[in-house]
Amino acid sequence: EACPQPPRQRARLPRHGGDKPGHRPLRPTLGPHRSPCQSARRVRIGIIGAGNFTTGRMLPNFKRLPDVEVTTVANRSAASAQKVAQAFDIPLAVDDWHAVVESPEVDAVLIGTPPYLHPEATIAALQAGKHVLCQTRIARTTAEAVAMQQAAEAAAAQGVRAMLAPPAPFY
Fold this sequence. Notes:
This protein has helices spanning about 35-40, 50-65, 80-90, 95-100, 120-125, 140-155; strands at about 45-50, 70-75, 90-95, 110, 130-135, 160-165. It is α/β, with parallel strands linked by helices. The radius of gyration is 19 Å and the shape is globular.
């Protein structure tokens, strides 16, 4: 059964006692934004490519999020994947990125590989119904980027999202 989408809420201004000295300025706040389905389920993430970007920035931040579970990591070799899995308490380490895309234990994929693999891995993950967060630089050529965009648009029609991880220092 599909989870209902939460209603969009407008920013609202908090109540305060006026513009008296000592009062903080008004700041918009957003109301509740989680549906019961979102609160009850963790997002299971599979990692494709575990280099410095992934191990230095993304994995430490994923581990801090209570609704995120990193379930699988794939790297160039089984030994390097196992090393990352041990360092970040990830249950499964593999040396073939296809295993991440095909896993029923993965809802979303982080693609942290060099750009030559971004198009193939992104398109395969989207076609498998996995949400995708891809490391920037999106692709090596305009044609690759366009193919990825087309795959993302087709997946979006099925409720699957794709996005780029912004370059440092934005995260």
